[in-house]
């Protein structure tokens, strides 16, 4: 099983790469509008896990370490370039695990980690995630209760029928989550959260400070758990402002 990285808008002269990891059940199309709002020296790649969008025929991951192994292999197959990583919700945990792997390997050089809509992994959030074995109605009700809302796409019955199987697989993957070991990251770490997201109260975000020995920041937006959709422009603007400037040749 592989993880595919989709270049959202090729920029041969880019000097920074931004890797984007979606929330549970979502695919690479979540980030399709991001390049228009990013600086021209930043080239964005979206992670496409198996089982969704153009990979419906591929079995999704349900084992955490296998997923991280595949993710690391795909990233390391790209030419080395200063790299920032963004992950939302489940994607935040995967982004943090990937960042540890890349730091240990020493390449590519990490310039920033952005984790979004996820409490610090030591705060018991994984254990309280909705169980993948629930029936459809109970699963969706549990998600709505935890996050305060559901992704807009799940309001469409056709999309929901396709999305629920991969969502269940992602929840199984989350249950198998393992914290990365080793020293804190050496790159800056920024935490994003929705001010009205019941799953990320302010007290659950401060723990991320232990994840880095470099600069640390928390920024909240006015939306809920899925502010990545409702506040996309403000979010991408904040990411852009925190990335390194263009390299001088």
TrEMBL record:
GO BP field: lipid biosynthetic process
InterPro entries in the record: AB_hydrolase_fold (IPR029058), TEII (IPR012223), Thioesterase (IPR001031)
Residue ranges of every copy of the Thioesterase domain listed in the record: 17-241
Gene3D superfamilies per record: alpha/beta hydrolase
Assigned protein family: Belongs to the thioesterase family.
Protein name: Thioesterase
Source organism of this protein record: Luteimonas aestuarii
């Amino acid at each position: 099983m592989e993880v595919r990285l989709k270049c959202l808008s090729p920029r041969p002269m880019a000097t920074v790469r931004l890797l984007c990891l979606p929330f549970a059940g979502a695919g690479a199309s979540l980030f399709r509008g991001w390049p228009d709002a990013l600086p021209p020296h930043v080239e964005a790649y979206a992670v496409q896990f198996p089982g969704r969008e153009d990979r419906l025929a591929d079995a999704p991951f349900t084992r955490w370490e296998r997923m991280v192994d595949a993710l690391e292999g795909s990233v390391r197959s790209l030419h080395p370039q200063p790299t920032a990583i963004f992950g939302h919700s489940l994607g935040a945990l995967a982004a943090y695990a990937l960042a540890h792997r890349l730091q240990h390997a020493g390449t590519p050089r990490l310039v920033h980690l952005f984790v979004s809509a996820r409490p610090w992994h030591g705060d018991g959030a994984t254990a309280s995630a909705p169980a993948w074995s629930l029936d459809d109605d109970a699963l969706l009700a549990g998600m709505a209760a935890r996050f305060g809302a559901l992704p807009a796409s799940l309001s469409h019955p056709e999309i929901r029928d396709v999305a629920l199987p991969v969502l269940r697989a992602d929840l199984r993957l989350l249950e198998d989550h393992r914290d990365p070991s080793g020293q804190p990251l050496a790159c800056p770490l920024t935490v994003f959260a929705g001010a009205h997201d019941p799953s990320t109260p302010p007290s659950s975000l401060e723990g991320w400070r232990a994840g880095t020995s470099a600069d640390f920041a928390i920024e909240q937006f006015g939306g809920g758990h899925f502010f990545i959709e409702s506040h996309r422009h403000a979010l991408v603007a904040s990411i852009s402002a925190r990335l390194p400037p263009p390299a001088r040749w």
